[in-house]
Amino acid sequence: MKTMSCKELGGACDQLFHAETFEQIAEMSKQHGIEMYQQQDSAHLEAMQKMQQLMSDPAAMQVWFESKREAFNQLPED
Question: Per the structure, how many domains does the chain have?
Fold first, then answer.
Protein backbone atom coordinates (compact mmCIF):
# COMPACT_ATOMS: atom_id res chain seq x y z
CA MET A 1 0.00 0.00 0.00
CA LYS A 2 1.21 3.51 -0.84
CA THR A 3 0.09 6.98 0.20
CA MET A 4 -0.25 10.25 -1.70
CA SER A 5 -1.80 13.53 -0.68
CA CYS A 6 -4.38 15.61 -2.45
CA LYS A 7 -1.65 18.23 -3.10
CA GLU A 8 0.67 15.63 -4.62
CA LEU A 9 -2.12 14.76 -7.04
CA GLY A 10 -2.73 18.35 -8.09
CA GLY A 11 -5.27 19.21 -5.40
CA ALA A 12 -5.36 21.75 -2.64
CA CYS A 13 -5.15 20.02 0.74
CA ASP A 14 -3.26 17.49 2.81
CA GLN A 15 -5.94 14.76 2.66
CA LEU A 16 -4.16 11.41 2.36
CA PHE A 17 -5.17 8.59 0.06
CA HIS A 18 -3.93 5.03 0.59
CA ALA A 19 -4.08 2.44 -2.20
CA GLU A 20 -2.38 -0.54 -3.78
CA THR A 21 -2.43 0.88 -7.33
CA PHE A 22 -2.18 4.29 -8.94
CA GLU A 23 -5.58 3.75 -10.55
CA GLN A 24 -7.15 3.27 -7.12
CA ILE A 25 -5.51 6.38 -5.72
CA ALA A 26 -6.54 8.41 -8.77
CA GLU A 27 -10.15 7.32 -8.25
CA MET A 28 -10.01 8.28 -4.56
CA SER A 29 -8.64 11.68 -5.53
CA LYS A 30 -11.40 12.12 -8.09
CA GLN A 31 -14.10 11.30 -5.53
CA HIS A 32 -12.50 13.74 -3.07
CA GLY A 33 -12.53 16.40 -5.79
CA ILE A 34 -16.23 15.80 -6.40
CA GLU A 35 -16.94 16.21 -2.68
CA MET A 36 -14.92 19.42 -2.52
CA TYR A 37 -16.69 20.74 -5.62
CA GLN A 38 -20.07 20.03 -4.02
CA GLN A 39 -18.92 21.93 -0.93
CA GLN A 40 -17.67 24.76 -3.18
CA ASP A 41 -14.29 24.71 -1.43
CA SER A 42 -12.47 27.68 -2.94
CA ALA A 43 -8.95 26.20 -2.79
CA HIS A 44 -10.08 23.03 -4.53
CA LEU A 45 -12.10 24.98 -7.10
CA GLU A 46 -8.93 26.89 -8.00
CA ALA A 47 -6.97 23.63 -8.33
CA MET A 48 -9.75 22.20 -10.51
CA GLN A 49 -9.59 25.24 -12.76
CA LYS A 50 -5.88 24.58 -13.32
CA MET A 51 -6.63 20.93 -14.09
CA GLN A 52 -9.29 21.93 -16.62
CA GLN A 53 -6.73 24.09 -18.42
CA LEU A 54 -4.32 21.16 -18.47
CA MET A 55 -7.03 18.83 -19.76
CA SER A 56 -7.59 21.11 -22.76
CA ASP A 57 -4.29 19.76 -24.11
CA PRO A 58 -4.51 15.93 -24.25
CA ALA A 59 -0.76 15.51 -24.74
CA ALA A 60 0.06 17.70 -21.73
CA MET A 61 -2.56 15.87 -19.68
CA GLN A 62 -1.01 12.52 -20.58
CA VAL A 63 2.45 13.74 -19.57
CA TRP A 64 1.06 15.05 -16.26
CA PHE A 65 -0.81 11.80 -15.58
CA GLU A 66 2.23 9.67 -16.32
CA SER A 67 4.40 11.86 -14.07
CA LYS A 68 1.95 11.27 -11.20
CA ARG A 69 1.92 7.54 -11.93
CA GLU A 70 5.73 7.50 -11.84
CA ALA A 71 5.72 9.45 -8.55
CA PHE A 72 3.35 6.84 -7.11
CA ASN A 73 5.53 3.99 -8.37
CA GLN A 74 8.61 5.53 -6.72
CA LEU A 75 6.95 5.76 -3.31
CA PRO A 76 7.95 3.27 -0.62
CA GLU A 77 5.35 0.85 0.63
CA ASP A 78 3.57 2.06 3.79
Answer: 1
DSSP code, position 67:
H
- Quote the domain boundaries for residue 16: 2-74
Q: What are the pLDDT tens digits along the chain (78 aa)?
A: 999 999 999 999 999 999 999 999 999 999 999 999 999 999 999 999 998 898 899 999 999 999 999 999 999 999
Query: What DSSP state is assigned to residue 8?
Result: G
Q: What whole-number distance in Å separates Cα of residue 16 and Cα of residue 58? A: 27
Residue type, 44: H
